[in-house]
Specification:
By secondary structure, this protein is mostly helical. The chain has 3 helices and 2 strands. Helix content is about 75%, strand content about 5%.
Length: about 140
């Protein structure tokens, strides 16, 4: 019996969300105070605007030129940052490879030490060598 209230609640929530989406979409479609896509800031070419507009005075043209120079400087700086980032990524990749190689070598050495320890323990267990409390190794005479 708990399924019926859950289904009713789901239908109500769906209707409310649907109406909200319809209202937002209708408002966006019917709003006449929006900017046309062709006039959006991303499509405006600053260099053609400054040379083709006859009503712009010298001061405005100087400001436009200054802004264009700043944009060019920022683009050059961004390229430098991107190049530096690529260099750092390459160095990081090289360092990671060296670390991987070093870890592999350390693992090989650790395996060799383990083998030596095993041989040493076998020699002790068979009585071929003895280790004193002070760490001296003795070969018992037979």
């Amino acid at each position: 019996m708990k399924q019926i209230p859950a289904i009713v609640a789901a239908i109500i929530v769906t209707i409310v969300i649907g109406l909200g989406m319809f209202a937002v979409g209708a408002n966006a479609f019917l709003d006449t105070a929006t900017v046309a896509i062709a006039e959006s800031p991303a499509d405006v070419n600053v260099s053609t605007t400054s040379s083709t507009t006859p009503g712009i005075d010298a001061q405005s043209q100087a400001q436009i030129k200054q802004q264009q120079d700043l944009i060019a400087q920022y683009q050059a700086r961004e390229k430098q940052y991107q190049d530096r980032e690529k260099q750092y990524q390459t160095e990081l990749k090289d360092a990671a490879q060296k670390l991987t190689d070093a870890n592999a070598t350390a693992q090989q050495y650790q395996d060799q030490v383990q083998q030596y320890q095993n041989v040493f323990m076998q020699l002790q267990q068979r009585g071929i060598i003895r280790v004193n409390a002070d760490g001296q190794i003795q070969l018992p005479r037979r």
